[in-house]
């Protein structure tokens, strides 16, 4: 059986950067690595990016943004395909799967949008828990600095408010899901990478001896 590692955190926390570095580290050790992300690049992920993420006109149906419930179901549908078509087969083949976001994002973000956490956990119950989740914890003001070019100015305050709630939710989830390990995302990129490698060696390699 392979190893399943997930990077989580608010927008701009450094997930993609660390996921790429960790994938390289495993490849240099001779492992077969699958580097993936959610929303995916499949038709489901593309639909989400058009309907949910751009904040654009396509996300407006009958004059209103799509409902929070529909949003959560879209992320879960994308995840079901991700799990069945890529994650599970790759793990069965003994590969290392590294995902930039997973169901923990649904719990943190859709909970912040007002949906019930238990409903969200049940909705995503089909998704196997990761072996290790690296939560890159970052203050929102640093996150905004890092993604400033991408923020939607007109909704800037809403974005800050949401990101604050998401960060709090992630920290609460870390108390509930024992596979989540918190790392300070303010540190330099290389130091964070070293901390993640130390966690992988301790939490995964040790456990499998
Ligand atoms: N430890 C760090 N210190 C300073 N800047 C960083 C650090 N890690 C990443 N960055 C920079 O922050 C920006 C966002 O990084 P990255 O895309 O990896 O974050 P992300 O969590 O994947 O973002 P998003 O969720 O919004 O896609 C990039 O410009 C990246 O170079
Ligand atoms: C998987 C997932 C993601 N989201 C949100 C979190 C981010 O704001 C975007 C994805 O942006 P990225 O730059 O590609 O990371 O989608 C969410 O609300 N729920 C989810 O399940």
Automatic annotation (TrEMBL):
- This protein's source sits in the domain of life called Archaea
Q: Which NCBIfam families match?
A: DTMP_kinase (TIGR00041)
What is the name attached to this protein's record?
Answer: Probable thymidylate kinase
Q: Where does ATP bind?
A: 9-16
Q: Which GO terms describe its biological process?
A: dTDP biosynthetic process; dTTP biosynthetic process; dUDP biosynthetic process
State the family named in the UniProt similarity comment for this chain: Belongs to the thymidylate kinase family.
Q: Which reaction does it catalyse?
A: dTMP + ATP = dTDP + ADP
GO MF terms here are:
ATP binding; dTMP kinase activity
* GO cellular component annotations of the record: cytoplasm
Its keywords, alphabetically, are:
ATP-binding, Kinase, Nucleotide biosynthesis, Nucleotide-binding, Transferase
Any one Pfam family match given in the protein's UniProt record, by short name: Thymidylate_kin
Q: Which gene encodes it?
A: tmk
Q: Which organism is it from?
A: Thermococcus aggregans
Q: Does the keyword Secreted apply?
A: no
């Amino acid at each position: 059986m392979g190893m399943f590692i997930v990077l989580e955190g608010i927008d701009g926390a450094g997930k993609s950067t660390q996921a790429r570095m960790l994938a390289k580290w495993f490849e240099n050790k001779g492992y077969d690595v699958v580097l993936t992300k959610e929303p995916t690049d499949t038709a489901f992920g593309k639909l989400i990016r058009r309907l949910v993420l751009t904040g654009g006109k396509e996300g407006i149906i009958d004059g209103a943004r799509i409902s929070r419930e529909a949003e959560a179901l879209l992320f879960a549908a994308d995840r079901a395909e991700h799990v069945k078509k890529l994650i599970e087969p790759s793990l069965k083949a003994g590969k290392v799967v590294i995902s930039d976001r997973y169901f923990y994002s649904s719990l943190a973000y859709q909970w912040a949008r007002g949906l019930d956490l238990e409903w969200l956990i049940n909705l995503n119950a089909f998704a196997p828990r990761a072996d290790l989740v690296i939560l890159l914890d970052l203050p929102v003001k640093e996150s905004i600095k890092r993604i400033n070019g991408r923020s939607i100015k007109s909704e800037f305050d809403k974005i800050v408010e949401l990101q604050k709630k998401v960060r709090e939710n992630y920290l609460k989830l870390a108390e509930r899901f024992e596979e989540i390990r918190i790392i300070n995302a303010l540190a330099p990129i290389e130091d964070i990478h070293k901390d993640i490698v130390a966690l992988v060696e301790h939490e995964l390699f040790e456990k499998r001896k």
